[in-house]
Specification:
Layout: H1 3-18, E1 27-30, H2 50-59, E2 63-68, H3 83-99, E3 102-107, H4 111-117, H5 127-145, E4 152-155, H6 166-181, E5 188-192, H7 194-197, H8 199-203, E6 213-219, H9 223-226, H10 267-280, H11 283-300, E7 304-309, H12 318-334, E8 338-341, H13 370-375, E9 395-399, E10 401-402, E11 406-408, E12 416-421, E13 431-435, E14 442-451, H14 454-458, E15 462-470, E16 478-484, E17 489-494, E18 507-512, E19 517-518, E20 530-536, E21 546-555, E22 571-575, E23 584-589, E24 593-601, E25 606-615, E26 618-623, E27 634-641, E28 644-651
Parallel strand pairs: 1-2, 1-8, 2-3, 3-4, 4-5, 5-6, 6-7, 7-8
Antiparallel strand pairs: 9-10, 9-21, 11-14, 12-13, 13-21, 14-20, 15-18, 15-21, 16-17, 16-20, 17-19, 22-23, 23-26, 24-25, 24-27, 27-28
Helix pairs in contact: 2-3, 5-6, 11-12
Length: 652
Amino acid sequence: MNKLNYILLAFITIISFEAYGVAPFSKGVNLSKWYEESAIENIQFSKYTKNDFEQIKSLGFDVIRLPINLMYFSDVTTNQINPLLFDILDHPIAWAEELGIYLILDNHTLFDNVEKRYVNSNNAFDQIKFQTALTSVWSQMADYYKDKSDYIVFEIQNEPNNPMTTSVWSGIQQAAIDAIRAKDTNHYIIVGGAKSNSLTEMMALPIYADSKIIYTFHFYEPMVFTHQGANWVKPSASSSLGSLQGVPFPYNASTMPAVPEGLKGTWVEDNMKFTYPNQTGNVNYLINEMSRAKNFGLQKNVPVFCGEFGVYDKYAATEDKNLFTKTVREELEKGGVAWSVWEYKTVYLKDGFGLFKKNTYQLFEHDLNTSLLTALGLNIPPQTPYVKEPAKNGFLVYNDYTAANVSNTSGKGGGIIDFYNANEKSYGKYSIFWAESNQYAQVSFTFSPLKDLTWLRNNGAYVQFDIKAKCARDSDNIDIRLLDKNNYRFKFPVDKNLIKWNSDEWQTIQAPLKDFYLAMSGVTFDWTNVLDLEIVNEYGDFKNKTVWIDNVSVVSPNSTAIPAIVKNKLKFKIYPNPLNKNAQIDYEIDNIEQVNINIYTVSGQKIMEVVNEKQNKGKYSISLQHINNFKPGIYFCTLQTESGNSTIKFTK
């Protein structure tokens, strides 16, 4: 090949991949079932942490798509977004920026529910009302984030569907773009077509006059393969793909299952008999579809992004799933099309699309589906078998948010249980507000993996939490309960001897694990497999009663517990907060007395002794040495004197 041919080939390569818009990211994953709640108070904020983001990046991802039920988190009348959303979104946005990962804020509100939420006087879908709500929430989002991280990306609406056509939807989408650009001209915006973000409908969209628009589509075809066993896909009112199983990819006549009885007469029968064998059930179909996406970007000079693809793993054969995934991924990358696989983790012990092996705790070091990661072209971290060890350190359960690997599973008794109460707290931002519930309601925390508490129980550990109660009767007792994997219960009653039930003061409860006793007869409690920690109104309802709970933890005997919360009568502060290398503690004592200042982790482990001596009356100022050695996180600084105690929460 002569020199001219080399130059020509290089020029053609540049044209193929650089002459049209390219997304600022290339490969990503969806963090499903995190911000996809029907009410903002139900969000399990600590389901994912900065550590998860670090692990995701280590696999080779450079973008995370974050599905958010955005419309549910705004008032249906005023369209005002609940400010709690901005607070709990600020954290993952900060993690993403620090790690250099793009974060797509995806309005994932299910369109079937949008159709029911925005209705006219005849209870029919009101397109104008929906457009007003959509533009309002995006105007607020753009206004809040306009000067924040460049790694933020806005996605206007996940999978717009019937009764919305692409021709109608494209105008509504333009109005949302205009609302964003009136506040924010910096961040990328993702747009898609109707019919569940289908590839064909994306290609029917207009080319919006904006240099930072990314066009998206979702790819799950052929559905009879990728969604076999999916009971939420309903070809008719009385049938679902839940009964469909054993569909191979590629199509193989000798192993192709018969059409399930309940699916006969639906589109599935026609697909299994004709479309799948003759058109869609082969690798070439996938290659051609991805080529259509590439060519759209090339012809229109716009970035293209496959926001979702994957295979439901309930019945799909592993090798077939991996072949489908590998083919789609490779063809997208050949065409310069960015992608985001659905999903990272599934709901615990459920079938799904995730990157972890089925029926596991989905632990990064132990449970990754390495064959699927290979199909996705990702890095493969070392994997070791999971071995549960007895816990020998205390651990946080709730402080502002549930701790990592702890889920809020409260309820079962009506009333109000709000984990984001900002009005009363022992310290920090939030506490748990509990009121108006029936008898046997519970504030419940579920551990995953299960906890082995045998060593802690045998060595003096205890459950500790702060509580404030406004109840009229001293008989309003509660139980602290532990449940094992068999739902057998150990309990510790809290009565008027341990708590003042009608008080304006925060009080601290400490319940030694050795003092819990079996609440059921004829069974043996399994301390090696503790599933839940519960606080239960076992003895009566909470009508006209209000309880606040905060700072829930299991305190280890091999560390000094954080002292009980009392009114801060001491002059004591630590600053700046969050701390930096110039961290300082200032305090004042009124008498000659013993002074102890210590710093603890959230689990009660003492990590620094600052002062331990008798001191004269006066004002003191101490520079905190070695603060740079602290890992980022939440800590407590305690001042203990003969006159009283004080505890300050701070972050590093």
